[in-house]
Design goal:
By secondary structure, the chain is α/β, with parallel strands linked by helices. Helix content is 32%, strand content 29%. The protein has a 7-stranded mixed β-sheet.
């Protein structure tokens, strides 16, 4: 495994320690598109949410949001963003393996570009995410596909960390979720300096059984 993934806390503390917000302060477009149907007051978990752009946006829409990230620097900036926008939510500094997962607790769980995880860690993480949902809860995932290795406009730069539609469908179907939407597509991202330019993406929406 390459050095950045072998020292994730230090890597992300350094990346988030630069001036400004690495991925901007606006929510991801996949999240913005699909969260429109969620009702205010619903409980939402944002996985590895970094500097808080997605969790703060959801809190501003009236959701009861909880978010975590491994980087204390990122979480500090997320708290500052929430304060600046006048919203309240719960932040934790935690690794995906030691976060206090609450089975059946959330109406929605969101994972946008959580591609720090190698296949073994990803298996554990995806299982936790699926089990975090209430009956009828919705899972929202967005990530880069292998084509992103050509574009090099963001992402981990390692094939084993990238997603395919087949992998996502197989994984979450095995967890008992119903896949509602699964789409590979390309888009020009303008998410700060971290995600900038033509990108190869795959998005998933799935729900837990009622």
């Amino acid at each position: 495994m390459s050095l950045p993934f072998s020292r994730p806390k230090q890597t992300w503390d350094e990346r988030f320690g630069t001036e400004g917000y690495l991925f901007g302060t606006e929510p991801n477009a996949w999240l913005r598109e699909h969260a429109q149907t969620w009702s205010a007051g619903q409980r939402v978990l944002c996985v590895a949410d970094g500097e808080g752009r997605n969790s703060v946006w959801l809190a501003a829409r009236g959701h009861a949001v909880e978010a975590f990230d491994i980087s204390a620097v990122g979480v500090q900036k997320a708290r500052a963003l929430a304060e600046a926008q006048g919203v309240e939510l719960v932040f934790h500094v935690a690794h995906c393996d030691n976060y206090d997962w609450q089975p059946g607790a959330f109406d929605a769980t969101v994972a946008i570009f959580v591609q720090f995880a190698d296949p073994l860690m990803r298996s554990r993480l995806f299982s936790h995410m699926a089990r975090s949902l209430k009956p009828g809860g919705q899972l929202l995932v967005l990530g880069y596909t292998p084509q992103q290795l050509v574009y090099k406009t963001g992402g981990p730069g390692e094939l084993s960390h990238l997603y395919t539609s087949e992998m996502l469908h197989e994984t979450f179907a095995a967890e008992g979720l119903s896949v509602e939407e699964l789409r590979e597509f390309e888009a020009d991202l303008t998410e700060g300096s971290g995600h900038l330019g033509r990108s190869a993406l795959v998005g998933l929406v799935a729900s837990s059984p009622v």
